[in-house]
Amino acid sequence: MIKVNNTLKMMLTTASASMISLSAFAAPTVGETEKQATNWIAIIMFVLFVGLTLFITKWAAKRTQSTKDFYTAGGGITGFQNGLAIAGDFMSAASFLGISAMVFSSGYDGLLYSLGFMVGWPIVLFLIAERLRNLGKYNFSDVASFRLEERPVRAMAAVNSLVVVAFYLIAQMVGAGQLIKLLFGLDYNIAVVIVGLLMMAYVMFGGMLATTWVQIIKAVLLLSGATFMAFMVMKHVGFSFAEMFNQAINVFGEVHNKTTEEATQIMGPGGLVKGPLDAISLGLALMFGTAGLPHILMRFFTVKDAKEARKSVVFATGFIGYFYLLTFIIGFGAILLVANNPAYIDQAKTAVTGSLQLIGGSNMAAVHLGHAVGGNIFLGFISAVAFATILAVVAGLTLAGASAVSHDLYANVFKRGQVTEQQELKVSKMATLGLAIFAMLLGIMFEKQNVAFMVGLAFAVAASANFPVLILSMFWRGLTTRGAVIGGWAGLISALILIFLTKAVWVDTLKLGEQAPLDMSNPALFSMLISFFACWFFSITDKSARAQQEQAKYDAQFVRSMTGIGASGASDH
Q1: In this structure, what DSSP letter does residue 35 have?
Q2: pTM reported for the whole predicted model
Q3: Cα separation of 223 and 315, whole Å?
Q4: How far apart, in whole angstroms, are the C-alpha atoms of residue 175 and residue 179?
Q5: Spatial distance between the Cα atoms of 409 and 158, rounded to a whole number of angstroms
Q6: Which of 5, 140, 176, 303 is the one with CA 20 to 30 A from 537?
Q7: pLDDT at position 392
Q8: 8-563 topology per CATH
Q9: What is the DSSP letter of 364?
Q10: Is the alpha carbon torsion for 467, 498, 494, 412 positive or negative?
Q11: Contacts for 407 with CB less than 8 Å, ≥ 6 apart
């Protein structure tokens, strides 16, 4: 049987950070976990995956000759491939563990939560994808600075993007280290270094082409594994959702000592958020944060035209929606097959707390279910896929960070565009090396730290700093450089300050008092409003000649955003 340490509950809270936002997991520090017996099946499967992806990286390296190849895979990725890669970028191991754990613990709430993330995709589809592809070259900054003054806008956009990337990276690296320490039996530091070295190899040598294919393979593996688990669960209940829900209610009532009426409540919405303001704020962060994540936006430049960009969002939405449906079934399946199986119950902790405690905590529900339906071999497969998932996500993040450093800061801010492709490519690879070392150090430094708030911060910053500037630059004639720069900085700073004042940081992390100054878990409602207001106010009050020129250029920008005339085509690999 699987042996997993009791402290996994705390660890996987960290891992869940990559998808479950601030309000869901804001516990104190993550305690040190104990190394488990080496899981050789998982290690062999992981080595096979790494071997395959390194072969792809070698193939991609031969085709990565220019900055366009490095950042966008030459623009030659199809809509279907890009949609699958975006899904691979978005479906983290932690969403697999975290969302299914939420369903396991609170039933229907888990589905509602996953729907929050899904709402962001139509926004990306209808508002952003096509125009982004027609206006940009490599990243979000290209679009924001299209008709505005390049240097201040790019500097602001690059810093905002690096902050988002940094917080995402921390969560992923810590999650990876703790997950692998427990599931593979490797030392934490070794796990973090392995992730760091591999992501550096993918990005530095293979650029976007290698990263894309790593994400595609990982998405296929994760969807395959989750599909098998969901199929086995449905087979257990005779492929009847009604039967699954009925059995789940009965088992939930039995293991939690609840009446049938109380147990039935898992089929309705519960108390995921404290109040309406929290709910609105969280919803805004999830919806608009998606449309401001640099590593997601960057993927729209890998396709040849706007039509393929639109197709890629449609495919991504389909794959992600299907995945969340699977996690929902897996969560209820865990109630049926794990909650009442003594092999997966931590009897000692259950006796102390008086409530059901899984070995490793509730976040292990999906992993335990994997073992229950597929034995040790499938457990090894799921463990390997979890690690592979993290690799794919950090590779995308590293590339987004490298583009902000080399393309925005080095090439356009410091060198004012007077650089050769070879120079920019060299700086990109140096930036990748620097980011990988930075990520490994952060991962080791934050080993015992809860980093849930950092992902909440990543979404809040993306929604507050990137999204308002991006959307207004494309849709509002009146936006000026002054408005965009002040609005972007205002969104970033206000999001950082407000997050600092939340319970997750003020009380749980920094221990500055018993009561947080701000009684909210996500500040997006206020920081987004501040950013939009600053963009609007400082634009309408800007009467300079420069501002008038920028507003006059809007028509040309609008025509290009709608038609694609002047947008660069794909390179032929």
Answers
A1: P
A2: 0.82
A3: 14
A4: 6
A5: 7
A6: 140
A7: 81
A8: Sodium/glucose cotransporter (1.20.1730)
A9: G
A10: negative
A11: 67, 71, 138, 139, 141, 424, 428
Residue appearing with tokens 């994540």: 293
Contact 274, 521 (CB under 8 A): yes
84 pLDDT higher than 70: yes
CB 528 within 8 A of CB 284: yes
**Sequence ranges of the domains in the chain:** 8-563
**Alpha-carbon span 360 to 364, nearest angstrom:** 6
The predicted-structure confidence for 520-560, as pLDDT tens digits, reads as follows 777 888 999 999 999 999 999 999 999 999 999 999 998 88
How far is Cα 165 from Cα 168, in angstroms, rounded to an integer? 5
Which CA distances in Å does 328 have to 62, 222, 245, 307, 364? 42, 15, 11, 32, 15
How many degrees, rounded to 5, is the angle at CA 57 between CA 55 and CA 59?
Answer: 75
Rounded-to-integer distance, Cα 203 and Cα 154, Å: 22
The DSSP line for 263-314 is: HGGGGS---SSSSHHHHHHHHHHHHHHHTT-HHHHGGGGSBSSHHHHHHHHH
For residue 357 the two structure tokens come to 């405690």
The CA distance from 437 to 446, in Å, is 14
Residue 192, both tokens: 């973090």
Which residue intervals of 136-264 are DSSP H helices?
A: 140-144, 150-183, 188-236, 241-255, 260-263
